[in-house]
Each structure stands twice: as C-alpha cells, then as structure tokens.
Design brief:
Domain HTH merR-type (chains A, B): 1-68
Structural class of chain A: mainly alpha
Subcellular location (chains A, B): Cytoplasm
Order of helices and strands of chain A: HHEEHHHH
Strand content of chain A: under 5%
Pfam families (chains A, B): MerR_1 (PF13411)
Keywords (chains A, B): Cytoplasm, DNA-binding, Transcription, Transcription regulation
Shape of chain A: elongated
Number of helices of chain A: 6
Oligomer: homodimer
Protein name (chains A, B): Cu(I)-responsive transcriptional regulator
CATH topology of the largest domain in chain A: Multidrug-efflux Transporter Regulator, Chain: A, Domain 2
Helix content of chain A: 55-70%
Distance between the termini of chain A: 56 Å
Number of domains of chain A: 2
Strand order of the largest sheet of chain A: 1-2
Number of strands of chain A: 2
Chain lengths: 134, 134
Amino acid sequence: MNIGQAAERSGLPAKTIRYYEEIDLIHPSRAANGYRDYGDQDLHRLCFLQRSRSLGFTIEECRTLLSLYDDEQRASADVKQIAKMKIDLIEKKIKELNSLKSTLSVLVKNCHGDDRPDCPILDDLAGKRSVETI
Amino acid sequence: MNIGQAAERSGLPAKTIRYYEEIDLIHPSRAANGYRDYGDQDLHRLCFLQRSRSLGFTIEECRTLLSLYDDEQRASADVKQIAKMKIDLIEKKIKELNSLKSTLSVLVKNCHGDDRPDCPILDDLAGKRSVETI
DNA sequence: TATAAACCTTACAGTAATGGGAAGGTCAAC
DNA sequence: GTTGACCTTCCCATTACTGTAAGGTTTATA
C-alpha cells in the first residue's frame, strides 16, 4: 500500500512515517514508480510505533522495544525494566507538575484579578515573596 | 557585573542568559572591553525569568508577563488569566500522565519479567490486546 | 485528449529552549 | 610572562516532528 493508506491505518501522519524511515525504524520497499510500498509487516511495525510513542516511549526506547520485539530470544525482564523506568519518570513528572500547580494556584487565589494594577503573581515572579507558595 | 556573576545570582546558566538577550528579553549594556555588564535592573529581570520559567511558563508567556510587569497600567486580571490558563494546561498534562501510568502499570503487572521470551507488554504494543489496559 | 485534483517524491528550513564546543580576546595572579 | 579563569562570537546538536517548495505520477473528469 502507498504511504497515504499506511498513514491512515497506523494513525501516523505520512510525514512522520517518512521520518521513521529516515532514522531507520522502518524500511519499506519501493514500487516501480518510486513510491514507498508498505506490506502488512511494515504496517504492523508502524502500529507498534504509534502505540509505543503514544505511551510516552521516546524514539530510542521504541527502537529498543522493536529490536526486543524482533528478537525471539529476548527476556521479558528486559522489556519490563524499560516500562518500569518509564513509569518512574512519569511519576516524577507528575509530582513536578503537581508542585507547579500548587504554587500557581496559590498565586492565582491571591490575585484579585480586576483592573487594578497590583498583582501578587507578578510580585512573586519578581521575587517579592508576599505569599507562601509552598 | 559580568555574565558569570549574573548567572550565579539569577540561577540561570550564562549560555541561557546570552540566549535571552538574543531573543530580546533583556538588553544589558557593554563594558569598554566588550563584556556584557548587568545592572541591578537586569539582574532583577533575569531572576523574574528564572522564576517564571521554573513555574512552567514558556518563553513567549514570560515575554508577555515581563511586558505586563513593565506596564504600570496593567490589569491584574490579565496576569491572572495567563496563570489560570497555565494551571489548566498543567492539569490536562497531569491527567494524561496518570492515564499513561495506569496503562503501563497494568502492562508491567502482567509481565512475568523473567528470562522467558513471552511478554504482554510487547504483545500490547504490537496490537494484541491480551490485557485490559483501561 | 486535455487537464485538474489528489497523490507521491526529495530536500531544505523551522520549531522550543537550550547545551556543547571551537577559536579567540581579556584579565588577574603568581 | 605565562597560566588559568574569565569573556566573546559563531555554528552545530538536541527531540520528534511539521511546513513548504518544486516537481513527478496517477486518477477522475470535461
């Protein structure tokens, strides 16, 4: 199938699919007219990539996961470890965002938010700690 | 003061400070030898940038916040709105990450994680929905 | 048959917000 | 006087794409 159909079926933009080829994640064959030609195996790989990217794995992690997927001798522990590491990173990011949110929420709560010019948010950003922001 | 000291006092790398100048967020004067020379006002702006960046505002948001900060006639509501929008974005991101985490956790839980090759994580990525992943 | 639209191709540039490193000028200390 | 710690500009790399230009191919329609 052409790239357009591969895009539609995998849920990835054609542009992204070409990019994945450029960085050696996929190697479709070419039709006589020079068009890329995707087989079922290729489509499968694209779907794998779409799913793993959407789960937050980086391109390089996807590359590793794909190679593990290709390797019939892999140990499931290897895959599990990558996924666990990812969970840890996600947890860390969530904590960071929660902390940011708390700080911003305190600032917003303390800002009267009308047309007067005095603003605790700007005061805080400027280093005037008028409010306890956790 | 030189860029090194401005960096130390603001908590921003010198490289970043030069970048902020390049994109017109700050305009330090120059000493006779060509070195950048930061005054108290400049340092203040750098600290403002450091704080607002660390709170998750993008550079362009920082630019807006700085211009509001400079504007004696601003309405605090304008600032509040930007901060609120940021909170919404942060909340959305947190939800996304929680969802990712749940999915990955289910996959990890279902993977025996030993040296056998069968792996529910890879199966899921490959589109074989063997597990309910929310 | 002509032509227009809908595909496809490559190649180059841009994004956000820095980080790294080269090549070279300046300054303070010993 | 020379070493080492600064500073300068300039260009390239990062992540994972996205946009655009210039052009070739295929398909549908007038």
